[in-house]
Each structure stands twice: as C-alpha cells, then as structure tokens.
UniProtKB/TrEMBL annotation, chains A, B:
<dbReference type="InterPro" id="IPR050062">
    <property type="entry name" value="Pro-tRNA_synthetase"/>
</dbReference>
<dbReference type="GO" id="GO:0005524">
    <property type="term" value="F:ATP binding"/>
</dbReference>
<keyword id="KW-0648">Protein biosynthesis</keyword>
<dbReference type="InterPro" id="IPR036621">
    <property type="entry name" value="Anticodon-bd_dom_sf"/>
</dbReference>
<dbReference type="InterPro" id="IPR033730">
    <property type="entry name" value="ProRS_core_prok"/>
</dbReference>
<dbReference type="InterPro" id="IPR002314">
    <property type="entry name" value="aa-tRNA-synt_IIb"/>
</dbReference>
<keyword id="KW-0030">Aminoacyl-tRNA synthetase</keyword>
<dbReference type="Pfam" id="PF00587">
    <property type="entry name" value="tRNA-synt_2b"/>
</dbReference>
<keyword id="KW-0067">ATP-binding</keyword>
<keyword id="KW-0547">Nucleotide-binding</keyword>
<dbReference type="GO" id="GO:0004827">
    <property type="term" value="F:proline-tRNA ligase activity"/>
</dbReference>
<protein>
    <recommendedName>
        <fullName>Probable proline--tRNA ligase, mitochondrial</fullName>
        <ecNumber>6.1.1.15</ecNumber>
    </recommendedName>
</protein>
<dbReference type="InterPro" id="IPR004154">
    <property type="entry name" value="Anticodon-bd"/>
</dbReference>
<dbReference type="GO" id="GO:0005739">
    <property type="term" value="C:mitochondrion"/>
</dbReference>
<dbReference type="InterPro" id="IPR002316">
    <property type="entry name" value="Pro-tRNA-ligase_IIa"/>
</dbReference>
<dbReference type="InterPro" id="IPR045864">
    <property type="entry name" value="aa-tRNA-synth_II/BPL/LPL"/>
</dbReference>
<dbReference type="InterPro" id="IPR006195">
    <property type="entry name" value="aa-tRNA-synth_II"/>
</dbReference>
C-alpha cells in the first residue's frame, strides 16, 4: 500500500517564509487614536498576524505555527482526560438560541444572518445550544457512556462594540470549547475538577505564569465558574489576589464594598488586572432541560444531563503571552509555542568570513535531528543582509535561541555565538558544546 | 523546561467513543422524498457525521479522525511544494467582493451578513479577494520571494438552493484552498503544473481511482482549469473520457453537439458522471489587477501578480470515497483515511471462550507498537454484546481489518480470525502470522 515518503524533519529557510515585517497596520478601520497593545503592534510588525478587517486578523505562516503548537498541547491534554474532538457547524440555527433565550439576551455581540429561505442562523460565539441539541438527537445515549466529553477547536465570532488590542479582543477568533455531560451534579463536579486539572496542565505547559480565580458566570450561566488569567497591564478584568494564600476572585463577583482582607487567611488582598484566557463553567441543566439534552438513565428513562463547558481562547493566548513576557520591542515566546525554537544566521555574502557558510547547513542538519527540534529550526538565509540586521530581526520575532555563525567560526576550534533571547545572555560555544547545550534545552 | 509526557500511542476503546449508531437522519429540514445518497445514509447511520441543520453536518469523533488524516496528507503534499499554511478570517469585507464584481455575480449562493455598524461581510465560499488584498497590503513583496504559495484548511460556506447527498453538496464544508502568485504567465504555468503534480500525489495517497479532466472555470474565472473527479452514479458532472488515451473533459466545456470521438487519438469517448473533489485554476491577473495585488519587480516597480487557485473539498472527499468504494451496506474506507485501521473484538462476557479475553489487550498493545498503527487500533470492548453483533458493526463502519479473538484462541496454538473488509476475505492466523501480516499491510 502507498506509504508516506515525506518526512517533515528538515530545516526551514527564512527567505521562503511569508513574513511581511515592519508593517504598520494599514487598515482604514483602525482609527489613529485607538489604543494599541504591545502584542498587537509586535505581532503585526513582525509579520505573524495581519489585520484584515476591523477586529479580524489573518494568522500568517508564523502565527499558524504558533496556533498549531497550541492546538497540539490542547489536543494532548484533552485526550488525556478522555475528551473527544469533533467539529460542529459554525452556523447554529437561531431556533435553538431562541429556546434558551440567548437569541435575545446576547444582544448586539451576536452575529447572525438569514439564508436564501429567510431562515436565521447564529454565527456561533459558543456552542452550548448546538452540542445539547446533538445529545438530544442521538438519544438514547446510555448512562454507561457518561461522562461524555466533547470538544472542538474552531473559529468563533463576537461582534465586539470596540474590538481592540489585536488578538486580545477581536471579532473572529480561534477557541477550544469543551462540553461535558454527567449523570448528576456530584459527578459533574468530579468531571469539572478533572478538567480544571487538565487546564492547569495546559497552562503549565504553555509556561507563562497564570492566575486561576473564582469567576463570573455572565451570559453563559450556570452555578459556578473559574477563570484563567494572565496578569497584564492591559487586562480588562480586575482581580483580587491574596498575598497569603493566593486565593483569587474576579472583582465582578464581589459586592460594591470590596473587602481588602482575604476571608480565608486574613492577609491583605492585592488588586491586579488580568487577561482572561480560559474559563470553566458548571452549567447544571440550564441548557439540557430546555433543549431536551437527555441521556438514558439506569431505569431506561430520559434524564437531563448535568453539563459543564470549558473554553480556551487560542488566538487570545498567542497575544496574551506576548503581553506578559515582552518588556521591550523584542517578542519573548514561551518555549513550547515559539514559531521556531532556533534561528541560525550565517555570514553576509561576500564578507570576509563568508567561507564559514558551510557551518550553517551543517548546524541546521544536526540540530534538526535532535529530539524536540525536528521541525523547529529556521535558517535566516537572506545572505544579502548583514549578520547584525538579521540578529535584530530574529530578536524582534522572538526565537528563543539564535545561533550566529560569524567571524569566530573561522578559528582553529570554530566557535559559534549562542544568544538566549529570554534572558538576553549570549556566549561562544564550540560545536560540541553547542549541541550539548541545545540537547539540554529541549 | 516542561516536557511533553504524553504519548498518544495507545489503543482506543469503542465503549468510550461517541459514535451514535443506527440513527436515521431526524432533522425536520430533510424532506422525506429527498434523494439520499449511500454515503449520506451510511455516514449518518454509523455515527461518523450528524445532520445539524439543512445542509450542515457535525463531524463526530470518527469523522474528525478521517478529516485529520486527510489534513495530514494535504499538509505534507503542500509543504513538499513549498506552500505555507495560514488562516484567513472566514468573514471577508463585502467591499472586496464588490471590486471584483463577485458580490453581484455570485448570486444567492453567497451567504452574507451585516455587523452592528451595518458593514457587510461575506461568509467566504473561497478567498481570492481576501488573499489578493493581503498581497496588496504587504507590498513591497520582492520578486525574489515568488512563487508565493499560501494555503489554508478552513470551513467554507455556500448557500446551496438544494443541499443534498450529505457531505457531497452541503452548505458548510471544509476545504483546502491554495493561492499562488508568480511573476509572469509562463512562471504561473510552471507553478500550476507543479501543483497539479502535488494534487496527483494527494489523490494517489488517498488511494481511490480518480479522473483528471479539463474543467470549467465557472464563477472563479481565469484562463484554464482542471478538475479532479471520483466516478460515481450520483455525480453531478458529466465527463467525457476517451477509451484510448484517457483524455477527459467536463462536458460543460463542449459545444452542444458532443463529439463522441477523441480529438487526440480518434478512439471512442465514454460518458460518465463524476463528483468533483478538486479543482485547479490558472487565474492570470483577474483578481490581482482590480485589487492591486502586486509584487515588486526587478526594476523596483509594482506589477500585478499572476495567480492560480487550487481547491480540495475535504468533507466532500470523505463522502465521495464512500460512494466510489462502497457497494453494500458496509462502508469501505481507503487505508490512509480509515477512522481506525484495525478493530479488535474479544469474546462476550460470560461466554465459554471468555478466558481468552487477555489476548485482546495483548494484541492491541503489540499492534499499536507497529509502525503505521500507533494511534490506529480500536478495541470493541463492549463485551456485553456478542462477537457477531460487533463484527457486523465493525464491518458497517468500515475498518479495513477486523481481528476476532474467539473460540479458536483457546487452542494450543491460539488462532485469531483476521477479516479484510475491502475484499471480504478472512482467515485464521497464529499470533506470529498475524503480526507479520499486519506489518506487511502498513
């Protein structure tokens, strides 16, 4: 039978990558006086994303790579808790949203359209109605198949009044949404805490410090929820975090008179701002009852499932990690989602050290063969540019490591400069030391 | 740094898979007298897809697995011709479609909406306008970076007057769309033929016989095009194929008086019906001129790029391969995109041969460790059902191989039944012979 003969383990050449750099957002929909976040500015200027319409971005090839890595982390953690991936249509019949009342309660943020027969559809911001009606339609699903955990990673839509900060608050975005179905509230709470563990794994793997807080249920509804935040100055949520026990709450949950002392341990509470990147909800039967989302119980009877729903905003994470880690005009990517882990830069064409160019391909080949780097090495082969110019661009794009093959590669024991962009440290290493170091970093 | 500790190489358990079987399409939008295709019936009844609204389907977990495998084939073949993946917004500003005239010419198939500020957007069926305006906005892109090949795999929308045959003609579907940009018509033709080679690779890897025909440019426009078809009775395109030289044409290209003799070799031509699953177009400057999609030429001046566009309908392929290969009520999947390659079935609980159940997990473990089967083994662990019932279901779902651990596994040299569903052959093999056979099949 036909076998895949393609192995993707090779290095990439920057000259071939579509990364239109140093662009200012040109879209006329962006007003000149609108606040722009650091992530928005840097992701656009480094050619990772591109504004296409007001609040809508294209993920360019580097952005697509980051998205793919986030998806992989999420897929693995979802599979590890037994969740199954599917794809629901992006269009959901408005009839379902009318049954739950969200057709009216969501307001102008809901994008909708009519088809040629004047039937109304929602351009779904979330899929509680859609997934619950799926459960209804496949009845009888036995109690033996519970807990059922179904998720998707798809584009979602929200007609923000004021889209801003680039991928932080846009109108079309990529979200992972998971829905769980259980027999009882007690079992739904068990599932809920299992998923929260998976969320901790996801955010730990992304590798950027996060804060989990008791959350606001908002328009989704349900009995309780938690939010996952990245602390950032531009964050739109205000959180109260205890200095002592790390207990944290979204301030929206509290009454007007905010108590600045932790109820749990008595320590002082600090007010910080956060970007919400994940949200978990225990929904109860809010959706399954009106929509008839039932499983077949032990007595063979239909019974409304106890649901949970759980979101991670992938495109928002992409921008929020930049807000957290980046302090200058150089992006800092967390290791696990960097578009490439290593950028190798050789001498300029016609320069005195041009003879060492052969080291570039050699290093690219050796590094690509190390576990953890298979598809993650890029060579900036634009040899008409100086080393300095290319190092600047590589720093700006935020590759965790930059390897420079320059003058010192001509020495008897060739030495290569290794730059660690997160700590802004650099040193010269021999071939052997370089490989050993990179193996240790993986 | 945090390391991925999750390996996905383990077997799956059918009891945990959300596969609601034996369902009839219930959606009230499906009229009782509407023609239903075999693929539509079987994909729904085996719980691979589910009709959600008129012409809109959910891909359930097995369908999602098939989609993922198709994506992998396409990603590999696209990368091998240097194409880069990105994601454009699904919503495209109607202004762009007005510039090219397609806002009016597309007619009622175009789904569109207005946002809260009454700005119009297209729910994109295809992205020529969007990608060309991207090229315009990133100017100056140097001639050195051409040919530029950008693709995406995303949901597309078409408000079909009569959605039918399930995934064959639906209103929301998954498509790979590639766009290429070249300096001249001559170079664009070179790129075109390179992409056609990649398409041949894609369809050869999928493994179902296909027909490449000179095509109709339709509403996309351009100077010439080719179509990739699967021959099937329900196909909506009529093709004229030469018995001698295999030259083929879409009948839409011909004048009224169809010549039944091949112009190339003089042989008789046969009329067949095909399902279009891929389409390639040489566009010229049809989009780049009105939209200003220019690169910077050798003299530093803007010049309209010569474009090509190339589509593969992934969800349509899923259904069309079923139409081609399936002759009974049992789906036949091509090897490379089967939801699982092997289904292992053990004895019923409490049956005389229940003692051999230990072989089930053993075989699952050994087979999962063979190259090519890492994530592709499923165990039907619903041991309350008879072997016979589960074999029937496995045949119906279309796993290429079924391994039955039954009575003969009790013998001194345990024997396992191996069923090859495509040829409907079966035989009893020892442990060693079974593993050797499966290694050979990969």
């Amino acid at each position: 039978m036909y076998q895949s003969i393609h192995r993707l383990y090779h290095h990439h050449c920057l000259s071939k990558i579509f990364q239109p750099v140093n662009l200012k957002p040109k879209d006329s929909n962006v007003k000149k006086d609108e606040p722009m976040s650091l992530s928005q500015k840097l992701l656009v200027e480094t050619g990772i994303i591109s504004l296409r319409s007001n609040g809508m971005f294209a993920l360019l090839p580097l952005g697509q790579r980051i998205l793919k890595k986030l998806m992989m982390i999420i897929d693995e953690e979802m599979i590890s808790v037994g969740a199954q991936r599917l794809t629901l249509p992006l269009l959901t019949s408005a009839d379902l949203w009318k049954i739950t009342g969200r057709w009216n309660s969501t307001g102008q943020e809901l994008l909708s359209l009519q088809d040629r027969h004047n039937r109304e559809y929602v351009l779904s911001p979330t899929h509680e109605e859609a997934i619950t009606s799926l459960l209804r339609d496949v009845y009888p699903l036995s109690f033996r198949q519970l807990p059922l955990k179904l998720y998707q990673i798809t584009s979602k839509f929200r007609d923000e009044m004021k889209p801003r900060f680039g991928l932080i608050r846009c109108r079309e975005f990529v979200m992972k949404d998971l829905y769980t179905f259980d027999e009882s509230e007690a079992k739904a709470i068990e599932t809920y805490s299992e998923i929260c563990n998976a969320y901790d794994n996801i955010f730990q793997r992304i590798g950027v410090p996060y804060i989990k807080v008791a959350g606001d249920c908002g328009n989704i509804g349900g009995s309780f929820s938690h939010e996952y935040h990245y602390q950032a100055a531009i964050g739109e949520d205000t959180l109260l975090v205890c200095h002592g026990c790390q207990e944290a709450t979204n301030i929206q949950l509290l009454s007007d008179s905010v108590n600045a002392v932790c109820s749990k341990c008595g320590s002082d509470m600090a007010t910080i701002t956060g970007i919400e990147v994940g949200h978990t909800f225990l929904l109860g039967t809010k959706y399954s009852e009106p929509l008839g989302g039932c499983y077949q119980n032990k007595r063979g009877k239909p019974e409304a499932a106890h649901m949970g729903c759980y979101g991670v905003g992938l495109t928002r994470v992409m921008a929020a990690v930049v807000e957290v880690l980046t302090t200058s005009d150089n992006i800092i990517w967390p290791w696990e989602i960097a578009p490439f882990k290593v950028c190798i830069i050789g001498p300029k064409e016609g320069s005195l050290e041009a003879g060492v160019t052969r080291w570039v391909n050699h290093l690219a080949k050796v590094l690509s063969s190390l576990p953890g780097y298979e598809d993650d090495i890029v060579v900036d082969d634009r040899h008409r540019l100086t080393i300095g110019k290319r190092v600047l661009e590589a720093r700006r794009t935020g590759y965790p490591y930059i390897v420079v093959v320059g003058k010192k590669a001509q020495e008897d024991v060739p030495m290569f400069e290794l730059i660690h962009t997160m700590t802004d440290e650099s040193c010269y290493l021999s071939h052997h030391m370089l490989i050993t170091h990179m193996r240790g970093a993986a």
